[in-house]
Amino acid sequence: MVSIGDILSRYSDRSDLIAALEDVQDAFGYVSEDHMRAIEQTMKIPLVDIYGVVTFYSAFKLKASGKHLIKVCSGTACHVKRSDLIHDYLEEKLGIKDKETTPDGKFTLESVNCLGACAYAPTMMIDEEVFGQLTREKVDKILEDYK
Q: Taking the domains of the chain in order of start, what are their residue ranges?
């Protein structure tokens, strides 16, 4: 397992901040306050600046994701096919809101701009697998396979 120190040993300049944050997130799944403090000390960048970058870019996460990340497409084709109803159903079924994780740590739900599977709208992705032409019934069956 790689340590935060191992990651940060490759970076020294303020211009490397985003690359360092990407490596931290790749290694740990998110960027914690402790990670940001280590970056602050190692790279001599004020914590407020690091936090500003992490919160500005939606690709960075401040909390660990669940075991399975569910991404629901909200792009134009999916929106027209009412992906919002699929997203709302998942919130109801899982008992969480967007960008939250179930209490058991199994699922994190996230709305995304596009999954690139417009012909199969509405779509969602769990981990790296795409599911299309979704209905409530299909969502129920898919989730059963992950439990």
A: 4-56, 68-146
Q: Which residue, among 58, 63, 52, 75, has the nearest Cα to 132 in the 3D structure?
A: 75
List CB contacts of 39: < 8 A, sequence separation 6 or more: 8, 17, 20, 21, 24, 45, 50
Tell me which H or E stretch contains 112: strand 107-112
pTM: predicted TM-score of the whole model, two decimal places? 0.74
State percent of the chain over pLDDT 90.
90
CB-based contacts of 55: which residues, under 8 Å, 6+ apart? Answer: 62
Mean pLDDT of the chain: 95
* Strand-strand pairing, 68-73 and 107-112: parallel
Residue in the block written with tokens 């769990």 = 126
Across the beta sheet with 107-112, what order do the strands follow? 107-112, 68-73, 124-126, 129-131
CATH architecture of 68-146: 3-Layer(aba) Sandwich (3.40)
In 28-106, DSSP assigns E strands to 68-73
